[in-house]
Amino acid sequence: MSQDSPVTSRATDYSQWYLDVISAAGLADYSPVKGAMVIRPHGYAMWEHMRDDLDRRFKDTGHVNAYFPLFIPVSFLSKEAEHVEGFAKECAVVTHHRLRAAEGGGVEPDPASKLEEPLVVRPTSETIIWHMYGQWIQSYRDLPILINQWANVVRWEMKTRLFLRTSEFLWQEGHTAHATSAEAVEETKKMLGVYADFAKDMLALPVVPGVKSASERFAGALETFCIEAMMQNGWALQAGTSHFLGQNFAKAFDVTFQTQEGTREHVWATSWGVSTRLIGAVIMAHSDDTGLVLPPTIAPVQVVVTPIWKSDAEKVDVLAFCAQVVATLKPHGIRVKLDDRDMKPGAKYYEWERKGVPLRLEVGPRDVKQGSVFAASRTGGKKESMALEGLAATVRAKLDTIQADLYARALAHHEARTFRPESYAAMKDALDGGGFFLVPWHDDAVAEAKIKEETRATIRCYPIDGQAEAAGRTCFYSGRPATHMAIFARAY
Amino acid sequence: MSQDSPVTSRATDYSQWYLDVISAAGLADYSPVKGAMVIRPHGYAMWEHMRDDLDRRFKDTGHVNAYFPLFIPVSFLSKEAEHVEGFAKECAVVTHHRLRAAEGGGVEPDPASKLEEPLVVRPTSETIIWHMYGQWIQSYRDLPILINQWANVVRWEMKTRLFLRTSEFLWQEGHTAHATSAEAVEETKKMLGVYADFAKDMLALPVVPGVKSASERFAGALETFCIEAMMQNGWALQAGTSHFLGQNFAKAFDVTFQTQEGTREHVWATSWGVSTRLIGAVIMAHSDDTGLVLPPTIAPVQVVVTPIWKSDAEKVDVLAFCAQVVATLKPHGIRVKLDDRDMKPGAKYYEWERKGVPLRLEVGPRDVKQGSVFAASRTGGKKESMALEGLAATVRAKLDTIQADLYARALAHHEARTFRPESYAAMKDALDGGGFFLVPWHDDAVAEAKIKEETRATIRCYPIDGQAEAAGRTCFYSGRPATHMAIFARAY
Q1: Which among A143, A268, B286, B312 is least buried, having the fewest CB atoms inside 10 angstroms?
Q2: Has residue A158 got a pLDDT over 90?
């Protein structure tokens, strides 16, 4: 679709709608490298707001940032048995360090530059980081280590989808080292809480915090915690994970510490991450058939001011007033943009709506006379007049309302489409309509795989809240005693 | 060296001193991947302060951030003839996208996953970005494009040195597209100015803005501008570059636009960047034989508060007072840390001095009684008592003084060691002592190469200020009429 084409409606084709929203807002493009995307400025600015807020939350909880190498020797991957199973399969492998002129033009890898040991472009950094931790950790005094890294990672994906699944993506990965199991488990849960709060406060996204079943666990983890969000079509999207790694990586890389009592023990580990797929989550949770809808917290432009004039005399007055509006809002940290391009107001409205700007302030000659602006919310409702006097507070309140409304709307949707099917058959019947299916479940990887095969639904998580409900109930699938309450859903 | 060993003195071994300072401050480590470093939290925090400040300067001058893929198809490199010469030589080449179990254990690249076209890990992103610009630019209305990217890049280096030359490093690369040559040249110079201001304000680093000779130009540029800084041993360090690329990349990737007059023309380009090597520049410009010295602007910790007590009763009072000190400074944006570890004050002082903390506030029982702290500057001078009342302002003023002193000291050194040798022989005699050698020069690549071979000195730049001085003078090397004033120096 071209940047001016209308967006396909959700009802017509949900998948195409998603791509159209991205294109119409100018968020990302596919690149000439298979499965790798270009994050365009409007999309990247969303990421910057997410990143800055998360970074602050990480620092407030005692974490610091560092940077580890992009390349990992292949032998490192093999050191943790499950990890290599999970990550060695599809990854980018560097085998040469030089190009040479090719016969017939162009360049090619120089055979003389073949590496003794190939390098993998990091799909995740546990192995290289635990190698380094082995050098840094000697005693209990060196613990805990609470390090986070903002980085790009590569996982060679065959079937890609902008933001949701691309061969390269941006993320943060926290990697912490602790003296005790209890402390590591506490860290794992704490960071899950940070993610859940972030999703609610910044993305206006209600999420279910839970635990993954064994088959959905991170390769090398003892326990994977996650937050699961519901998209408008009722599909699930894993929005963040936090892993309790036990002593697996400490053992693989032989990282021990001297305890206060003088004994030597292996270190306990966690890792946790969120990625640019959150941008996809926000798009799919809030946008509509016109295009992108953004929570004000992460909107690159929160307020656009659009002047309207006919005569040159009007133009002078209107633009002067618009400048006043901008000067009023900016010092209050409101991200405001004046669109004074010489084009029809309707075309401007269309463009900014598709870019998801939460609030538009129209300024015509009549508004100037009244000393006010005419405000239109991206989320709808009646347009309203706002006085220039006290405008910053009025606008701030309006943005807060939009933010709260988006969350309330998403939460209502989430609740309305969380079902408690009486039976497996009932879930199968309802699955095409989307939604989360909360059921009593007897933990069983074989049955889980069978259900996935039959329905394309997977266990998204065992929600942390509400597990008590499983007591005394029978599994909706096998009839055996329930071990958990589980959420099944189709997922991105 | 271990983290507790003393730092080698500059006089004894300048190169070892540099590595010792890094190690003693815990800034970076070598990694198991050849030539790739790990930036440790204290070093990374310095980078964060640099990055945030630069990012603000870029945004204030109208730039936005975006993100382009890590991988570049090898054929792209070949499209710009000079560019491929400069960058195809030593780079990481991805040839496979999957590993498989190897006979005898471990994993190896799966031959079945060989890529049709190898990918290069970006050494710089002109080619992939100009490919994308080709899709985004149709008309003069799409111009200018003012995009910056924060990213990691890889250049396979044989001889590495922490921060200064590593196979992977972090940087920003600005890539702009313009309708006219004049506008692109203006952008090139503007960004050079941004770098020079940043170096002065944030790094306390005096720099010489200049133009590179043809042989030192960026591969693919018509003109390369740079800022050159002088290290304490008198060697030069290129601290940032800004390139006017003309229409080279637009032609290589066939990027044209429709002008206002309806004709089609190739787009004009610039690119500009600074990297984590700036951390190396800061270390070498300001540190001393004790260890790291940091300008307060980029110091991860600006003020450390060190309590001193003997009895438990004293400890309670002293720690309560220290908490007040921290609570007084923090709200003013001063990065303050309380070191209440149970160890000898002297050992703490030593540790924080080596970490480059600009100001230490000692608090003992007597200070508590007097309602004051005892302040020691990392840069020396008499310790002074500072009252708790008004402490934030006193500390801020002190930090500003330290910052100004560092710049003044570096500038004095820079000026004292900028020489105007009468002859080539005089420069050769003086070169081992280090310094910048400002001479009248007749532009000549052959002579330049010969001087480099004989003396290891290169033309750092033709300084922008002072070119008029060349008029009527003769080249210090050839005796021919001078075309430029040139700075020769040995360089990192």
Answers
A1: B312
A2: no
